[in-house]
Amino acid sequence: MRNVTLILDDGSRFHGKSFGYEKPVAGEVVFNTAMSGYPESLTDPSYAGQLMTLTYPLAGNYGVPPFTFAPDGLPVFMESERIHAEALIVSDYSGNYSHWNAVESLGNWLKREQVPGITGIDTRELTKVLREHGVMMGKIVFDDDPDNVPQAAYAGVNYVDKVSCREVIRYNTGEGRKKVLLVDCGVKANIIRCLLKRDVEVIRVPWDYDFNGLEFDGLFISNGPGDPDTCDAAVRNIRQAMQNEKLPIFGICMGNQLLSKAGGAEIYKLKYGHRSHNQPVRMVGTERCFITSQNHGYAVDSNTLGADWEPLFVNMNDGSNEGIRHKRNPWFSAQFHPEAASGPTDTEFLFDEFVKLL
């Protein structure tokens, strides 16, 4: 295992060993406080461009499930067709694994997909630095090749365009089914699964596709990576669709931000984001609280919502916006992930609410 150093933009250095693919890499360093679910997190397109730090100290002990695909083309156990995170940073990597569904080690998977993994890092101290300073760019450099220093930018890069599908894809086609138009900003597979098990047809289109000429019964805006301000084309298309005040619209994560922008609200970057399985949110106007899975670095400024909009959910840790709804029209969104995968499924009922509106 080669010696590596993680170098943050503030000059902080963390020393460890390589257990994944051996190449230097750079990206935005973020931390995830979930205790499990690294196969789902690594394949979540929302992690594109990021070096993912796991705060739970042990990783790899349950291995990796098979990368198989269902007849509809969706991966069975993963959230997309490949790993999207730029690298994985852990405290203690276990090369020995035990799980009924595991077929390979985490290290072998990373090597096969050419993604670096580093272990032996003081992830507790790294997380404290990121919480104090905020997320920042970082580089993983191999100590025996110090001149090979990677460069990368995150701010202003349209990562949605990098992970979105390139053509229209249809699922569950058939007579009589309600049609959901899904804007793919980096959609997780379980979002599509949650729609399909409610027996709707899903029409998946690229993030900047002008879908307003198609026939559909509801508009769904997916999650995705990076800065929503790079997605003006999607916002314009959503705004045009909103001219039909009876059209049901549901957005998740990036979808919450793009729907908010289409409604005139502003977005800001969180200091270190929400990436975990245990974020508490409250439904505004009620005492109903839910534990949610989250993965986002930007948030909607609730103070900039127009008079026709109101917050739907609020984060109980920092008071940030976790969803919006229109006061008259059937439009709503969630900043968290009701489809989980991985994480709690407390809020999957939101898919039922959306399908009822179709």
Automatic annotation (TrEMBL):
Membrane-spanning segments: none
EC number per UniProt: 6.3.5.5
Ranges of residues in domain Carbamoyl-phosphate synthase small subunit N-terminal: 2-141
Protein name: Carbamoyl phosphate synthase small chain
GO terms (BP aspect): 'de novo' pyrimidine nucleobase biosynthetic process; 'de novo' UMP biosynthetic process; glutamine metabolic process; L-arginine biosynthetic process
CDD domains assigned: GATase1_CPSase
Region CPSase, annotated ranges: 1-178
InterPro entries: Anth_synth/Amidotransfase (IPR050472), CarbamoylP_synth_ssu (IPR006274), CarbamoylP_synth_ssu_N (IPR002474), CarbP_synth_ssu_N_sf (IPR036480), Class_I_gatase-like (IPR029062), CPSase_GATase1 (IPR035686), GATASE (IPR017926)
Organism: Bacteroides stercoris
NCBIfam families: CPSaseIIsmall, PRK12838.1
Xref: Pfam families: CPSase_sm_chain, GATase
Assigned keywords, A-Z: Amino-acid biosynthesis, Arginine biosynthesis, ATP-binding, Glutamine amidotransferase, Ligase, Nucleotide-binding, Pyrimidine biosynthesis
Signal peptide per UniProt: none
Top-rank taxon, per record: Bacteria
Metabolic or biological pathway, per its Swiss-Prot or TrEMBL entry: Pyrimidine metabolism; UMP biosynthesis via de novo pathway; (S)-dihydroorotate from bicarbonate: step 1/3; Amino-acid biosynthesis; L-arginine biosynthesis; carbamoyl phosphate from bicarbonate: step 1/1
Catalytic activity reported: L-glutamine + H2O = L-glutamate + NH4(+); hydrogencarbonate + L-glutamine + 2 ATP + H2O = carbamoyl phosphate + L-glutamate + 2 ADP + phosphate + 2 H(+)
PROSITE patterns per UniProt: GATASE_TYPE_1
Family, per entry: Belongs to the CarA family.
Active site, renumbered: C253, H337, E339
Positions bound to L-glutamine: S46, G224, G226, M254, Q257, N295, G297, Y298
Assembly mode: Composed of two chains; the small (or glutamine) chain promotes the hydrolysis of glutamine to ammonia, which is used by the large (or ammonia) chain to synthesize carbamoyl phosphate. Tetramer of heterodimers (alpha,beta)4.
GO MF: ATP binding; carbamoyl-phosphate synthase (glutamine-hydrolyzing) activity; glutaminase activity
Alphabetical list of PANTHER family matching this protein: CARBAMOYL-PHOSPHATE SYNTHASE SMALL CHAIN, MULTIFUNCTIONAL TRYPTOPHAN BIOSYNTHESIS PROTEIN-RELATED
Function: Small subunit of the glutamine-dependent carbamoyl phosphate synthetase (CPSase). CPSase catalyzes the formation of carbamoyl phosphate from the ammonia moiety of glutamine, carbonate, and phosphate donated by ATP, constituting the first step of 2 biosynthetic pathways, one leading to arginine and/or urea and the other to pyrimidine nucleotides. The small subunit (glutamine amidotransferase) binds and cleaves glutamine to supply the large subunit with the substrate ammonia.
Gene3D superfamilies registered for this protein in UniProt: 3.40.50.880, Carbamoyl-phosphate synthase small subunit, N-terminal domain
